[in-house]
Amino acid sequence: MMNYASFGFSRNSMRAVVALAFLLVPVVASQPQPQQKHSILNFFAIGDWGGVGSIPGAEFFIGVHQREVADGMNKVAMDQRPEFVVALGDNFYLKGISGQQAFQRVEKTFENVYNGAGLARVPWYVIAGNHDHYGNVTEQIHYTYYSRRKSKTEEGFHHRWEFPSLYHKRTITRGHLSVDLILIDTVDLVESAFLLEPNATAKSESLWDTWVRSPLGFTTEKEPPTTKQWQWLQKSLSDSTADYILVGGHYPVFSQGMHGPTKELVQHLKPLLEEYGAHYLSGHDHAMMHFQQNAPASGGVRYIVTGTGNACCSWRRNKYRQEHEKDYKDVPLLWHLFHQEKHHDNGLTITGGFVSIQATPLSMKVQYHAQDGSVLYRAEPIPPVPRRQQSLPDGPTSKSENMLTKDDKTKGNVAIE
Ligand SMILES: *[C@@H]1O[C@H](CO)[C@@H](O)[C@H](O)[C@H]1NC(C)=O
Ligand SMILES: *[C@@H]1O[C@H](CO)[C@@H](O)[C@H](O)[C@H]1NC(C)=O
To answer: Where is the Calcineurin-like phosphoesterase domain (predicted)?
Structure first.
């Protein structure tokens, strides 16, 4: 497996380029730089935002703090003009959506909440969380096409819900800048991770059984797990030529919150992120965390946890800190906001929040916001992906190829999409 040490040369040359660019700025400042000006991309990320279920209250299907976070997002949006919002799952508490009322629930919990002037036309790129999987995720996917049709016939209605399939990706380019956003379904990945292990078929049936009989009862039509999405993810990463690669999923890789890290993702996703120089956005724990893998020259994978769209915050768990001490030496938690820390000296009690990201060809900046939009933490700027294709003509591979050999032979799952 590659690591950042092998990028030493290209990273140093990039730093030289960056330094040079700064030197040049005053010299060329008098001339218009339209390209540079347009090479900026602003967007938000939010997790665990999906209102409440059938709990009686003044506003059905809207979480108590969800509206506050939506107001704060709108405030920041008026200033930053985000081009999209990444929605990291748990879109509808407690059991997703299903049946006749499904689309009405999307209107109540989504359309009628994030509709301030700064957000009303901003698309959301959506994936499902575990709570969505308790309902029928297919309905959430279908709402994409319904909403698109509706926007063509209903005046004043803007199509914003982009959830075209269980996992999906897009490349966003602005001037000289390109960002790959790879959105994955971590429920499916976690449940299928065992297929990447030796002798997987022996285990598969019992695990499949547990999954279908989860206590809340799934209504989604599910097929037995396969490694199809793992393959898609690996191919999406290896195909990427973007300046930044962001993978978004519901379950965190690392967390010191209530749910802790996700074993399967530490095992199988972390190596892929490191190999391809990608960063990871997630929710699930209702807290804010920023992990940065130790690596030369401020590279290293960032793990951004923002599960506070509807609530802040869950407790920090010493258990997860201690059990994973070894991991956190390499991937330290640089900043966090847990329940213990939600009362600020300035009088603000934090009830929720979100993340804003600004990418330019030089760096990507991540800020964590409270429900009123105020900035709680500014992470160290992230440099672009080192261009591995140039330094390593043979290309990446051996590790991940090994990872995906097993069940494709035994279960006959063909190929990569
Ligand atoms: C896989 O199954 C074979 C046959 O039952 C067994 O010999 C082998 O030890 C197993 N491998 C692992 C890693 O469990
Ligand atoms: C899920 O929703 C889709 C689309 O409306 C529908 O075709 C399917 O029957 C639903 N599945 C279940 C288990 O309700």
So the answer is: 43-287
The model's pLDDT over 238-248, given as tens digits with 9 standing for 90+, comes to 999 999 999 99
410 CA distance to ligand 1 middle (Å): 14
* DSSP for 164-194, written as a single string: -SSSEEEEEEETTEEEEEEE--HHHHHHHGG
Instruction: Specify the residue with its C-alpha closest to ligand 2, atom 9.
Output: 221
Ligand 1 pocket residue status of 198, Cβ below 6 Å? yes
Other beta carbons less than 10 A from residue 235's beta carbon: 15
Query: Cβ(259)–Cβ(284) under 8 Å?
Result: yes
pLDDT digits (tens, 9 = 90+) for 219-264: 555 667 789 999 999 999 999 999 999 999 999 999 999 999 999 9
Reduced to 3 states (helix: H, G, I; strand: E, B; else coil), residue 375 is: strand
At 352-385, the pLDDT tens digits run 999 999 999 999 999 999 999 999 999 999 999 9
Strand order in the sheet with 124-126: 161-162, 124-126, 85-87, 41-46, 353-359, 364-370, 375-378
What's the chain's length in residues?
417
CB 201 less than 6 A from any atom of ligand 1:
no
Query: Ligand 1 mean position to 199 CA, how many Å?
Result: 6
- How far apart are the C-alpha atoms of 394 and 389, rounded to whole Å? 8
**Domains observed in the chain:** 42-411 (3.60.21.10)
How buried is 25 (Cβ within 10 angstroms: 0-12 exposed, 13-18 middle, 19+ buried)?
exposed
